[in-house]
Amino acid sequence: MKVSRLALLAILAPSIASAHITIGSGPALANKSGQKISFAINHGCTAAGGAKLDTLSIKVDIPTGIDATTVRALPSDFGGTPAVAKTGTAVTSVTWSRNPAELQNDDVAYYELTLRLKVNDVPFTKIPWVITQVCRPQGGTPADDVTVVWTGPSTNAEPSPNLIVVPAHALGWHKITMTTAITTATDMGLFFGDAQIVWKGTSAFSANSFTTALIAMTTGVTPLATLAAGDEIWVKY
To answer: For labelling alongside 216, which of 42, 110, 160, 165 has CA 20 to 30 A away?
Structure first.
């Protein structure tokens, strides 16, 4: 069987998405204190010659949408006691750094780093985090460091991880007036992933495939794919 050059390149090319730093703790609740946000450091860095390097340090900048005065950094097996930078009482960044002697000779480890904080009252938004990752070969020096800054939209090679913010809620029905538009079906799934069903008039949405099928089979009910700011909805969690 012949394989085209383009297809072969697609097979051999590394998956950039698999290397992203992500938020492993899931969506956060708006206007709620004491939440733990965990960052998943899925991979280290790739040196110019192709060597896979272990991670030496991670710096997390505190973005708009977070109450910076509430940020508390948790110690980690990755780097022990984190270094916290402040302006007044507001935390501007947190950095976890490892002892260079503990670096492994390959990119074989997965790390998690956690902040405890309050998210502002910004439901139905995505808060991007700028993260600076520094890697170093085992036995290397600062001259050998490789730095990757995770910033920018999701189409960039180094996209920021986005924190999905949903309204604070308990089980049961909630009447919500949208403060922000949701313009895609994908985002509907992100913001209402834990809801049983969302109603706007005679239109309904569910992230559950069985409920979605019931919506499609129900006379007089149409699928709900987007929402505008100001829309009034009923959500059952």
So the answer is: 165
